[in-house]
Amino acid sequence: MHRTWAIIGGGNGGQAMAGHLALLGERVRLFDVFSDTVNAISRQGGIKVTGAVNGFGPLEFATTDMGQAMEGADVVMIVLPSIYHEEMGRNCIEHLRDGQIVFLHPEASCGALAFKKLLVEAGNTADVTIGAANTLLYSTRIITPGTVDIFGVKHSLYMAALPASRGTRLEEAIGSVFPNFTLCPNVLYTSISNNNAMMHPAPTLLNVARIEAGQDYFYYTEGITPSIGAFVEQMDDERIALGEAYGFIMKTLRKSYFDMYNSGDMSESDSLSALCKKVVAYREIKAQKTLRTRYVLEDVPYSLVALQSLAKIAGVSTPCIDAVVQLAHGMLHGELDEGRTCEALGIAGMTKADLLRYVS
Amino acid sequence: MHRTWAIIGGGNGGQAMAGHLALLGERVRLFDVFSDTVNAISRQGGIKVTGAVNGFGPLEFATTDMGQAMEGADVVMIVLPSIYHEEMGRNCIEHLRDGQIVFLHPEASCGALAFKKLLVEAGNTADVTIGAANTLLYSTRIITPGTVDIFGVKHSLYMAALPASRGTRLEEAIGSVFPNFTLCPNVLYTSISNNNAMMHPAPTLLNVARIEAGQDYFYYTEGITPSIGAFVEQMDDERIALGEAYGFIMKTLRKSYFDMYNSGDMSESDSLSALCKKVVAYREIKAQKTLRTRYVLEDVPYSLVALQSLAKIAGVSTPCIDAVVQLAHGMLHGELDEGRTCEALGIAGMTKADLLRYVS
Fold first, then answer.
1. When you count CB atoms within 10 A of the terminal residue's CB, does the N or C end of chain B come out lower?
2. A63-67: long-range pairs with CB below 8 Å, 24+
């Protein structure tokens, strides 16, 4: 059974998603704020996809009118950097109708909780299911508006429903099209399964000297030096402990890399720094030329701060994560959003049991 | 009136101090644990000093016997990295006699408190005055054992007595020979006036990517990039606030640099990063080639942790200082001493008022 999808966001991920879904025979509308993007896609009637997925995906329409995009959609999929979640979330709420799924793809950390708070604040009582992915399905870049290159499609990623009791709706709608998504117990699991929160801010901030000296380097093979890798592994231990506090057995970053990328030369005892040098897909990935990148401006407030919020409620200490948040604020002071604090997530004052009930 | 000085430590600072004091006509003995150093100095009968101070300073003797060095000394001056303070402190306690001054030069942060705790623990009731300097008087390096080059002598540095009521004894003994030392209200002031705590650990740790890539760089002119400088300034704001909490008006790092080094091209509105590029004396100072340097292994546990301890008692928050301590532990985990915690300083459980009474 094909469904109608409103893709909110015509950036790299949104165009890849819209094109791919259309190629799979789904009915797809694309919303973007930029009329240039919308016009380019409208002119050609869809999106050309190259790379790991190939073909021309015809869209129902592209539009700058969110209400039009969302009307009659079964799934409203928000494919935007998390810094835009709140603004776009507010805009889409009035158009939400009973039975719709709002899928945050990805949610960074706690995006679903943040969206739920917007719904409550707006007094919206529509019977909607919020869904969230832990990461983006694709590695992808737009070539020109309407043409995207998909370098890779992840084999395995996570999704969860808020409330968790609506998981079967996500399975039916998302899982039937993309079996790559594994349904998780709840949105705390997808939030804590955020590897970008580990791999983006700390290595970027700890390469500040190179970045500000104008040196080029390869992000993974050169940027994750032994001590930087050791530090990230300690952050990751805090993430794993946070998961445990909520009853989950999480996979470490090192184990993820080993499972995803081992082509025979990796050892389970390799350090993160050593593993990063062995990932073929990472070899050519260059580093940012500034600290003012989404690796910091987005992943600190919308990922690490969200993890701090979950840690606060669970009473888990996260000294390395805290240090990275402070480092970012100290270096870029005044330039970072406050981010996903307990207050911003609408979970301030909850106990761990309260929160687990709230998401279940 | 000339005095008898026992210099404990025959490293760069100890040899410079011993040679300089002897040149000023004082009676000087030098203790070191290394017999090679002691023998070389004994053979030539003293220390040759070159550079900003020049001449041959004849010593009474050099020895590996601490009791011999200390017997009859008016001032026992400990000129050692702070990581050796505890061990050497314990060794010297049994030889301390009524009326002696023990001067920690420098104390890093809270070295005098740490020494006082050793005295109490040892049950030593000799009537001694503990003195402490905030930094080393010299920039200096040993050329060969018995020959030191003094690049520079600081015009202005701080000392304090523990208890503070013994300040006049320091003035008489230390101040009469070295007017460069300004007597401060108490040892909290010298502890908080520790610029190395700001300028050593964070810039070293934040240059980890360069260091571990084997790149050479100049510590001050290249290592203090704009964002690293911004971060250090925020750490320094915490230090200033800590001083305020104890009733002091401290000088910021930037103001110190401006006052010490302005040769007309500095502006009071320059950032720390900009100022560091303008300090002529800093131009040729190369950076460390490893994180395992005293800039981290010493200055984190013996300076930053000590400041954290004072902050804890005063109820002052130090998020940037905390972040640097955590960064060091995360990168070098297991390799750092616990350092000068409240417990190690013998001040755990004190209120701010208690501590101020304790040092006064």
1. N
2. A63/A29, A63/A30, A63/A31, A63/A38, A64/A31, A64/A32, A64/A33, A64/A34, A64/A35, A64/A38, A65/A31, A66/A8, A66/A31, A66/A91, A66/A92, A66/A95, A67/A94, A67/A95
A334 — contact with chain B (CB < 8 Å)? no
Distance (Å) from the alpha carbon of A325 to chain B's nearest alpha carbon: 9
Distance between CA atoms of A154 and A53, rounded to whole angstroms? 12
What does the block give as tokens for B107?
């104390």
- CB contacts, 8 Å: B227 with chain A: 208, 212, 291, 331-332
Residues of A with Cβ-Cβ distance to B331 under 8 angstroms:
227-228, 230-231
Q: How far apart are alpha carbons A331 and A19 in whole angstroms?
A: 39
Query: How far apart are the CA of A278 and the nearest CA of chain B, in angstroms?
Result: 17
Phi/psi for B30 (5° steps) reads -125, 125
**pLDDT category of residue B260 using cuts at 50, 70 and 90:** confident
* Mean pLDDT calculated for residue range A245-271: 93
Q: Which residue on chain B is closest to A224 by alpha carbon?
A: B209
Contact A327 B230 (CB under 8 A): no
Judge: A206–B210 Cβ closer than 8 Å, yes or no: no
Of A226, A327, A333, the CB nearest to B212: A226
Query: Is residue A299 annotated as part of the catalytic site, yes or no?
Result: yes
Q: Are A187 and A162 in contact (CB under 8 A)?
A: yes
What domains can you pick out in chain B, each with its CATH number? 4-192 (3.40.50.720), 195-359 (1.10.1040.10)
pLDDT in tens, B96-147: 999 999 999 999 999 999 999 999 999 999 999 999 999 999 989 999 999 9
Instruction: Using CA coordinates, name the residue in chain B closest to A334.
Output: B230
Unique residue bearing structure tokens 């810094």: A83
pLDDT over 90 (residue A65): yes
pLDDT of residue A189: 98
Q: Kindly identify which residue of chain B lies nearest to residue A210, measuring between CA atoms.
A: B210
ipTM: 0.92
Chain A: nearest CA to B56, how far in angstroms? 44
Catalytic choice (A20, A149, A200, A236):
A200
Query: CB distance A217–B222 less than 8 Å?
Result: no
pLDDT level of residue B271 (50, 70, 90 thresholds):
very high
For the sheet containing A55-58, what is the strand order?
Answer: A55-58, A46-51, A147-153, A138-144
Active site (catalytic) residues of B:
200, 299
Task: Please say if A95 is a catalytic residue.
Answer: no
Tens digit of each residue's pLDDT (9 = 90 or more) over B219-257:
999 999 999 999 999 999 999 999 999 999 999 999 999
Which of A331, A332, A333, A336 to mutate to test binding with chain B, by most B CBs within 10 Å of its CB?
Answer: A331
